[in-house]
User: What shape does this take?
Amino acid sequence: MFKILILTITFALFYTYTIIAQNDMKKAPPVSVDYVDLEKYSGLWYEIAKLPNSFQDQCKYGTTAEYIIDKGGNITVINKCYEEDGQLDVAEGVANIVDKTTNSKLEVSFVSFLGIRPFWGDYWIIGLNEDYTYAVIGHPKRKYGWILSRKPSLPEETLKQILELLKGQGYDPKRFEMTVHKK
Assistant: This one.
C-alpha cells in the first residue's frame, strides 16, 4: 500500500512538473517596442538591474553599455564593468538590426575569430520611455534581461513601473539583481 502511495505521489509530481514545463515553453515571446530611434538610443547606458548570467559573473559594480553608430549605420557595443579587485573589464562587440521596421530587435556578438562572428545573442528592446532615459532589454526565451538608464539610478516609482512591465512580459522581476554603482 505504501509503495502505491509513493508511486502515485511521484507520478502526480512528475505530471505537474511536465505541465508547467510545457506551459513555459508555449509562452509567447516578449513583445518588443513599436519603434526605436537608434540615434536617440545610442550613447551611454547604466545597468540598473539584470538577470544573472554567466558572461557577467566577473562584474561586481559599475556596469555600463555604450552604443555607437557610425556613418554607415554599423553599431558598436562597448560593455564595461568593474571586477571585485577594481579592475576594469571591457568587452567590445557589434549589433545588427534584425527587425528594420521597428529597430527594436537586434542581435549582438562579442566573439570574433578572424573577423567571423560565430555567436550572436538576441537583444530585444521590450520597454523604452519617450525621452529615452530608460530601456528594458529582453530575450525571446527570457534567458536574459536588463534594465538600463541614462543615469546610475532610477526613481523608485519608475523602477516599480519597470518591474510591472517585466511581469507583464512574462518575466519574474524577483530574479533580477540590482547593479551597484559607486560614486
Summary: The domain at 38-178 is CATH 2.40.128.20 (Lipocalin). Residues 48 and 154 are 8 Å apart (CA to CA). The chain has one domain: 38-178.
